């Protein structure tokens, strides 16, 4: 099962709630083995207007506080790895600006017990540079220059530092203002931690060696010749992999009714692919057996998270869902149909609390489009209408009838 929703609104459609409720129904009530696979929430949205992502009511992951906050520290591991790479970039630029080729070479290939040896990662870099020599003593001055200098063009650096907090004053900063940085300063910024490419890598990786290879291919900038500079060039791939070695393991939690949940990875759908990890899905499928079900959810709506699920995650994992569950609410459809703006903390306008079939009917154009998108992938779609006490029977019947007519 793949859970997705119509285009999201500030009201929230209840995608996580439906995911958890479905798994509880299958496992606790129908006695069918099933597993939920959810993304780990970022502390940014958790402490912002959106709030947590543990579900709601009697369909929650518990303990909710652990789920929404540190959990087992996967996001902190991503933060550490990301910022290590960012620090390595600026440190390398500083050393190249202030040291000779010989001094850099002595630092990169130091004497140990009277001899110099290239590391495996250095030999790989030399191979990319077309240098086939294995003995550090035999390199020419030109080869040493090519080996020690990345010549990073600072205007092309795309790798930013991250923090898992909504701290707007870090959106643009100046680094390198201390005297020890010898006049090297530049403007940069902080991103939210889960926006790191390392989060996307974690969600798509299949094992530790695959993750290490993906980490090494991260492009952080271009050099002065316009060629890409990678984490592998900086020599930090192994360190990044070690920092992430425990984060690669999905976290096992439970719902209020004691059914199992894997929480793993949390890339955003607007800047990454927005789905929980491939590893969690594969492990859950193995655990439920041939007769069981795995329920995994998308980020954002069917118009972005689901398309990236099929185009990116399914290609990476080789898995295809048996059915797509499309979550919608009457009040969200009213908003898509031209209802008044919804503002956090302000009571809902009467259009959302009283029957209004015209708004619902107009808003179903969004629902129809999401159903059409799903059908293009050749997977059956089921509408899950998340009902609220303000929804009238006529509004509910109207949505269900329109969905059936469209093939859901």
From TrEMBL:
<keyword id="KW-0547">Nucleotide-binding</keyword>
<dbReference type="InterPro" id="IPR027417">
    <property type="entry name" value="P-loop_NTPase"/>
</dbReference>
<dbReference type="GO" id="GO:0005524">
    <property type="term" value="F:ATP binding"/>
</dbReference>
<dbReference type="Pfam" id="PF01268">
    <property type="entry name" value="FTHFS"/>
</dbReference>
<dbReference type="InterPro" id="IPR020628">
    <property type="entry name" value="Formate_THF_ligase_CS"/>
</dbReference>
<dbReference type="GO" id="GO:0035999">
    <property type="term" value="P:tetrahydrofolate interconversion"/>
</dbReference>
<protein>
    <recommendedName>
        <fullName>formate--tetrahydrofolate ligase</fullName>
        <ecNumber>6.3.4.3</ecNumber>
    </recommendedName>
</protein>
<keyword id="KW-0067">ATP-binding</keyword>
<dbReference type="InterPro" id="IPR000559">
    <property type="entry name" value="Formate_THF_ligase"/>
</dbReference>
<comment type="pathway">
    <text>One-carbon metabolism; tetrahydrofolate interconversion.</text>
</comment>
<dbReference type="GO" id="GO:0004329">
    <property type="term" value="F:formate-tetrahydrofolate ligase activity"/>
</dbReference>
<keyword id="KW-0554">One-carbon metabolism</keyword>
<keyword id="KW-0436">Ligase</keyword>
